[in-house]
Amino acid sequence: MNVTVLLFASYAESLGKTSLVMPLNTGDTVGDVVSRIRSLPGAGTLPVEPLVAVNERYAKRDRVLAAGDEVAIIPPVAGG
Amino acid sequence: MRSALVDRPIDAADLLGEIARNANGATVLFVGTVRETNQGRAVSGMEYTAYRSMAECEMAEILREASQRFATKDIVLEHRLGTLRLGEASVAIAVAHPHRGLAYEASRYIIEQLKKRVPIWKLEHYIDGTREWVGAGNVNPEPIAVHRPEVVTEERRAVRKAEIR
Questions:
Q1: How far is CA A23 from CA A3, A26, A40, A67, B119, in A?
Q2: In a designed cystine with A63, which of A59, B79, B150, B154 is the match (CB 3.0 to 4.6 A)?
Q3: Closest-approach residue (CA) in chain B for A74
Q4: What is the SS3 assignment for B142?
């Protein structure tokens, strides 16, 4: 069981990649995935609670993930 | 209504033409452009990137909300991605409405929501050769949760009607 994690802008630069596939355990939440990403090399710039979108919608930290979900870690947005 | 991410220059006149209807008495055009300084630093250009699929969904959702709140379907929003020079338009919003009050309000609502919610990022390039992701220093400025369009009550509608007279 896996989820795809997408990284953008400053986060993609820090971690040196724009996406990664992460194994998922039953019951894992957005917060669990974020914690694992924060332990990767280069993830020092990621805040403890970054904005996250699951399948293109903003999601809360306690959202339980399902296999195949697309989890995007969203840096502070700066459109306009 | 139409919203789009574009990889070419924005033509504001095209946007105005798209929403022109005789039923409308007011058209508001907002154009955001690349400014030559930011927080005291001399800017040479700007690079915009996005989480495209989600950004398109959020932009469409913002227009749906604006349409409901301000009672017009004559709205068009374009945001440009890629590398922009000083003075070039990064975003344009055109809103037409029978009356000016709601056209102004809708335009303001759309740009403020876009800046809050739409996953677009800009990498600012400075004259001194350095570059920086805009906003990357502010960690999670305010939580973005679920957005529920405000229900326009009859009372509020009446207030608005009074305002635009």
A1: 6, 10, 14, 9, 25
A2: A59
A3: B119
A4: coil
Picking from A8, A9, A47, the nearest residue to B139 by CB comes out as: A47
The answer to whether B36 and B47 have CB atoms below 8 angstroms apart is no
Contact between B34 and B46 (Cβ < 8 Å): yes
- Residue that has been written with the tokens 């050769």 in this structure: B129
Q: Is residue B68 within 8 Å of residue B7, measured between CB atoms?
A: no
Chain A / chain B CB contacts < 8 angstroms:
86
Q: How far is A31 from chain B (nearest CA, A)?
A: 15
Nearest to A80 among B54, B91, B139 (CB): B91
Contact yes or no for A67/A2 (Cβ under 8 A): yes
pTM exceeds 0.95 for this model: no
Blockwise average pLDDT, block size 10, chain A, 80 residues: 96 96 97 96 91 97 97 97
B160 versus B95: which is more confidently predicted? B95
ipTM tops 0.90:
yes
Residues of B in contact with A10 (CB under 8 A): 121, 133, 136
